[in-house]
Amino acid sequence: MICNIPKVTVTTWSSKSVILVGPTYRKYLENALNSVRNSDVASIVGQPGMGKTTLLKKIEESVNGDYLPIYLDLANKERIDDEFWVKLDYNWIKAKALENLSGRKKEFGYTFFKKLMGTKFEDWLQRVCGKYDDPYLRLYCSSYSKDYDGMIRAIQDLRNLAKVVLLIDEVRNFHMPVIHRLINAGMGIPIIMAIPTDAYSSITDLAIRRRIEESRIPLDDALTLDDIKEIVEAYCKDVSEDLLPIVSSLWKNKELTTVSSILQFIKNQVENSIKECGGEDINCVKEHLKASSSIKDPELYAKEIEKKVRELLGTIGKTYGVTYVHPRGKRIEVKGKGIVAGIFFIAQDYAFLGDVLLSVDGKLQFEEDIKLLAVAEEVEHNERNYKIGGKFLITNLEDVKIDGITVISIPTLEIIKIVNGDVFLLEERVKILFDEFSKMLQSTQTVQQQVQVDQVGS
What is the value of pTM for the model shown? Predict the structure, then answer.
């Protein structure tokens, strides 16, 4: 198997061990474990899919043996105590309580005579349930009212068997008053809870909010590139080098924002590659993944993007006052040198010039032409000179800055999607471009109007 990703969600594990990787998550795990050791309260806050449950499960796995972790999943549950009674391991509790009770048989009226008569000690304990005020007997008999008060009493008694830690998942705002009572009950046990961001934001009780804020572990915006690298390697080690550039690009562009969305994406990518390869041929899958995330011929792709921009200008351009779009690249002369602007259109009586330059090696080609384009002030078209209202460059490189040029950076994966027909992505970028140019034109027109006013005044 090339990848080992859960079929349903991140919290559905096929192995005994919980997968929790990434420096951020290791740091937060240690913070939570410190809270457990100090018998404190900690809250894990984050959007769905950010790894709250995974972190909580890893805490459970880490403390098991030294502590008695009681994991309460409150998803679709209104009452905490209902979930508590379901999650108790009664067989374990009964066995541990019996270890203590067996050394104190006379205290509960179990004599040699009763043993001689064939009465087993365990049967005798069932007869005396409720007759002695003893925590071990209560635990053995499960002599508790199955409500909140009974839950508090049971937790206090369980502390005689082991160090207890409460792990509470999917906490909603309506659970908080009861959890606050738990915190204030003075039991001295650690409580670690996972709260979705929307539930946390809706908590209005200042006392509760302050208590949660004291030890909040914030998972929103926690992901880093180092975390993503380890996540991809943990689930898809054999193809991690091919997947990581794709996932990193989508994460930087905020298309993948959670751990679960990353896992679902790489699962789909690998499954599609396996389907295309007709099986799990690792070399074929790697080649297919590379092909789906790389630009083989940057000039060909650039010409295709230019063509799609021109087509888009012909449809949405009218809204922005576009009256003419050149059907191909426009040759212009700047400082005695001829260059070709791949995109040329006229709007609001101004000319606009643009180019699409794509890179496969992180370097910008034809940089001299772009620098000449940057200083162009006028352009002749149909025997008329037009002032240039704006100049732009569309590229797949980040952080490109050229004075006099509006740079629109589109990630490589989006470029591939656009070339493959996703016009919506391109439309969004072009609209941003028009908004920028509209601001520039308004500023230019304001300056010109002020000059005219000053001239009339003089």
Answer: 0.73
